[in-house]
Amino acid sequence: MMQQYMKELEQEPFDAEEFVERLAWRTIAETKTDDDENFNPSLLHDSFVQAIKDLTLLQERQKKKCERLEAAVREDEAQFFQEIHNLLEQNKKAIDTFQELDGKINHVATKVLHLGDQLDSVNGPRARVVDAQNLMTHLNEFLTTGPLTSGIFTDPTKVDKAAEIVQKLYLISQDLPSPKFEGLKRKIERKYDETERALIEEFSAAQRRDDFKRMKEIANVLSQFKGYPQCIDAYIEKSQAGCLLSKDVFAHLVPLCQLNYEVIKKVFNNPEQVMAKFVLNIYHLKIQEYIASKLSSKLDSYNYLKTLYELYFRTNQLSQELSVFNMGSDKNYLNKLTSNIFNKYIDNYITLELKCLKERSSANLQRYYESKNHQKKQIQSGGFQDLRRDLQAVIGTRANINIAQIENYGGETFLSEELAITILQDTKNAFQRCQLLSKSEDKASNATQILDRLLNSLMIEHVDYALELGLQAIPVVEGSKSPPTLYFFIVVHQSNNITHLLEKQFTDLAVPLIINTPKYNDCIQKKKFVLEDIERKVNTGLDRTLNAIASWVKLYLQSEQKKTDFKPETDDFDTVASPACKAVSQYITNVIKEIQTNLDGNNVSALLQELGVRLHRVIYDHLLQFQFNTAGAMVAICDLNEYRSCTKRLGPLVAELFETLHALCNLLLVKPENLQQVCSEDSLVNLDRSVLHNFIQLRSDFKTQKQNFLKV
Question: Which of 55, 458, 489, 705 could potentially form a cystine with 598 if both were Cys, beta carbons 3.0 to 4.6 Å apart?
């Protein structure tokens, strides 16, 4: 049992209640038989007592075991403490020994340095004396007549040593008096130049072999010579040979610079200056030559500007990519190089830009009008022309002759969104060139001039001209035979589309160039002036168009509406809308569709409402010209229902007007004794009494029932 208790007590986590439960169940299970169903608490009590004794014994054993282990741990602790104490003593002794050794080393090092200084003080003058003796020996050789015979000067493999000696002799010779040593100086100079050329040739040969180690050695030697810049030039010339042969020159230059920058850092002691000269040579010789060849060819103004923009853009892009290389402290070095190349090309940029825009817009407009077989003409507009048009309309209507010569060009609007997009694309390119090619102080002014050209070519020469033609093409209604053919709604639709394109380009391209400058307000005012003039002509045209519609409806109803429609002599007829009403309704429906197709936004609602108001006035006046019996009043109400059906899309105001007119027509139908009640209804109660009396007087029975009618 002890082993069983140990297993249960060592379980993690240990639960005392579960332990007691298991003990109880185990005791019951062991003492219970199959036929014994009674519970024996005495056996359970004995089991618990025995378990307590066992656990007490187990506790005592474990306690003794813990005491033995603790005693062993204390012994180990004392032993380890003593060992650590000994190690600390040994470490302390080692530190003292190390400090003593370090002091001795420093003492010895001081003596060694002192000895070295003494040796240098002795060896330095001796070395200088030896060098001076060697130089005197070589100088003496230069003083002798004939060629130099020393191996150091005749052996090509010793050119580095010869260069060092010749360079020193050259410096010495500069201090010698001229008359006496003129021959010596010339001989040394000749050897100096010869050695310099030999080194440069050797450098070029090493460059061809990609022997960077040898190139560095020669560059170090040549750095003391006057011809060192020639060495750099030779390297640059060899490295950049053929760099203009590639189709995409700019794309080839960046890898070229990256490759040579690594070589320059390996070879030259002053890589920043060498790289700056390398790039200078690319800009002022290679790129400048390439740009000159591109722009000097016979190009028209458009292709010249396009090429200039592309070259300037690519050069700036190249400068940004090359800015990662270290070329000295001047951060604007690459920008200065670019400016030096392009200044002569962009000084007169805006003059050429405006000339190009004018030529291209004029040519595009000319081609468009030629494609329409139209010769652009001067159009006279204003108050006198409008008065003349109105007089011709009045005289023609009364005399029934056509004296107003209206030309509608077969429905051609002379507006083209494709042409507008072409002009806008040209100005878009111009704004982009202005952004890049203009100087910062001229940018806003140049953008303003480009905008002026756009407003003139697109809005005045094209849209305004088309509106003038559209105004003249609006028919003057002189008869009722056929309804007027109206194209002005299409003109408005196309002009609105072009205006929206203009506004978008102004916001996207022009505003960023002029914002926060004095030119901004000027441009806003110019655009506003042009667009307001166009809007005024659009409104004039829409007003004339509505007048034409209303005039035709009026004339058609006067011509086609018969008196018998509203005062039939017999009751044998169908109570339906009159033919004249149906024709007018069909025409108005077509006009509404035309308006909704070509106009948008608030313009549609306002125009449809104005059309409804004018149509209501015409129909109202038209009804006042007739007398109505009971059957005719039914026809009039049918007509009003037809008018209400076709005008229900014209807005709530128009619906209310026709609802009131319908109520007035009911006065023609009701019995005399019910008139008072009908006039008191909501739709008529607010009308002036004279209006009600005017309609009541249209009844055919007005004279016989006059006394009853006057009570209303």
Answer: 489
